Amino acid sequence: MTDSLGGQDWAMSSALTRRELLAALGVVGLGTIAASCTGRSSAVPPPNAGSLEDLGKDASKIQMIGAGDPVNPGKQTMSFFLATDSGLVTEAAPKLWLAMDRTSKAAGPFAATWYPLLGYDKTHDHSPRSPLAVGVYSAEVDFPSAGNWTLAAEVTSETRSVGTQVVPVVDSGVVAALGSKATSVPTPVATTRHGLAEICTRTPPDHMHYISLDEALNNGKPTVVSFSTPLLCEAQMCGPTVDEQILIFDNYGPDRANFIHVEEFLPGPDLKPPPASPNNLAPAFKAWGFVNEPWVIIIDAKGVIRSRLGPGVAAAGQIDAALSPLL
Known about the structure:
The longest helix has 15 residues, at 238-252. α6 crosses α8. The protein is built from eight helices and 14 strands. By secondary structure, the chain is α+β, with helices and mostly antiparallel strands. The protein has helices spanning 18-25, 52-56, 119-122, 193-199, 213-216, 238-252, 283-288, 316-323, and strands at residues 30-31, 60-61, 63-65, 74-84, 87-88, 95-99, 107-116, 135-143, 147-156, 160-169, 223-228, 258-263, 295-299, 305-309. The strands form two sheets. Strands 1, 2, 3, 4, 5, 6, 7, 8, 9 and 10 form a ten-stranded mixed beta sheet that branches. A four-stranded mixed beta sheet has the order 12-11-13-14, covered by helices on one side. It starts with 17 loop residues before the first helix and ends with a helix.
C-alpha cells in the first residue's frame, strides 16, 4: 500500500535539508509562490490585486504539504503541514486563499487551526510513529467547481511567508464522498485481548472492535470509523490517528456514538499480519475502496457520510468538531 503522501516515509529530523525534507514527505503537487522573478522588465505590469501572485509578492517561501487526493466541489476539510528548510512550522495561525490560477482574484481567507496530536502518549501506544506526528493544520475550504485549484497558505509572524498546494477537484469518483451513504459491511468483533490481537495490529490492540460496522450503521447512532494499520502503515501515521480516535471514544463512550477501527491487514489466529499488499487487504477495507491510509470517516445516525479526514493523520480536535454536531 502507498502512504497518504505518495509512498515515502515521513520520518525526518529538524536538520534535514529542503530536498531531504520534501523527499521524506513524498510531496505531490507542491508549489510555492515566490517574490517577483529576477530579471523582470520594468514594463511588466504589477500583479492583479487580490491574486495569488499578488499574495506572494515580497513574501518568503514556505512549503505547504498535503495529501493531494481528489475532493468534490463544496466544503471540504483540508489537512496539511507547513515546513521550511529547518523543519515543521507548528502552532501558527495560517490564512488560506483559493484560486483557479495565480492571476485571478483569490477567495478567502479561510482560517486554519493547529491541532496537536496528544493521543500516542496518553493511550500508551507502542505502534510505529512518525516524528512528524506532533500536530496538523486543518481548515474548511469551499471549492466552487471541478478543476485543479491552487490553495495558498499565508503565515505572518516576524516575516510573511506563502506556500501553495494544488488540489484536484472532481465531480465524481471520490471514495467516501461527503453526502453519500456509508458502505455497510461486516467487520470483525472481539473483546478479549487475544481476540483483539487477531484483528488489530496496534500495540496494544485498541478496543474499538466491539461492534461490527454494518450493525453500527443501523443502531441510530453516529459512527466514527478509522481505516488504518498501525503496525504496517508506511507513513507511520496510522497509530497516532487511531490514538486520537481513542481519545474521542473515551470522552463520549459507546452509548452516544459508535467507534470502530477497521484494520487493513488482519493478523489472524497466529497474530502475524500478512505482507502489506493489495491481495491481503481485509474485506471491509477493500469493500470501501481505499488505496491509501489512514482515513477517519464520520457518519450520521442515518448512515450518511458527513466528514472525511484523510488520507493522513487526523487529530482528536478535528474528529470532535465533526462528531459533536451529530450527537
